[in-house]
From TrEMBL:
It comes from Paramuricea clavata. The keyword NAD does not apply. One of its GO terms (molecular function) is ligand-gated sodium channel activity. InterPro entries: ENaC. Pfam families: ASC (PF00858). Transmembrane segments: none annotated. This is Amiloride-sensitive sodium channel subunit gamma-2-like. Keywords: Ion channel, Ion transport, Membrane, Sodium, Sodium channel, Sodium transport, Transmembrane, Transmembrane helix, Transport. It comes from the Eukaryota. Its main location: membrane.
Amino acid sequence: MFHNNGFEGDPTKSAKIMSSEPVEKTQANSFKKLLKNFASDTSFGGISKATLSDGHIRRFIWFLISATCYGFTIYMCYLLIMTYLEKPIKTSVDISYEKNIDFPSVTVCNLNQFRLSKVQNLTKIEAILRDFSNNKRNKSDGSSFENSVEAQSKAFKEKFNNDIDDDGQNIGDGQISVDEGKVIEELVAIAAAAVDEDELKNAGHQFHDMLLSCSWKGFDCKSGYFTKFWVQSWNWKFGNCFTFNPGADEAGDSLSVFRISKPGPNYGLSLDINIEQNQYVPQLTDEAGANIIIHNARQMPFPYDEGITVPPGFSSSIAIRKAGFTQS
């Protein structure tokens, strides 16, 4: 008789069944140990604290904090995904056309600052221009004019050194040279700052001499009722500038702003300008023409920064379109 120690059937199969139980238990223990090691060594905030903390209360608190944070993160990710899928409109653009709009202010400046026949009335400025044009200065004579030129050139070079980054090393005087025309221009501007503005305006180009004709929407805008809608101002670079439709007079009192309802040159501003080139001071400018600035009413013009240069002897047309943006 064959004995199989209480098992019936194939003894080999029974042995295999008995040996599988400790293997499954070992695998479960290994996975649990691996999970515990991961939880204790992971860099995820809170999980390692919840695993390594002593006591059930501390572990529960850390688990609650971690679960809350991760839940909030998942919720925010869900909201972002849903917002992206919904494709909401954040900006809506409505285009509308105004039937009547304000006509812009137009400022006209001559590229020449002083009239040649009047610059002699400005003693200091005339002396600077005379010394420069006659080339009387001698770098060894120590004249006041030469000292002024050298001082201004030195100031230009110091500003150049301050504006560049060359490993903190200053550039020597022999390495760069200053444009003498710019130096004279700066000296004239400094001298003009000490002169009364009325004297400067008298030395500059005059309104009735420079502006031969003016037409706005078919009306003569040089004289009569339109005279008060021309305002004179002084610019350090171009001298006298004249603004049409300024929105305010020279005293700052408010003026009406012209409005237009139709586009095109027939409903705009047409100017015939005499630049008086025979009155140009050659030491101050090497170009001829007028500077035109188009800007909003009651706004100070900056001809040197924003102007459009119009050459003499040509008919120039400047077309603009006004676009306004309103946020709601």
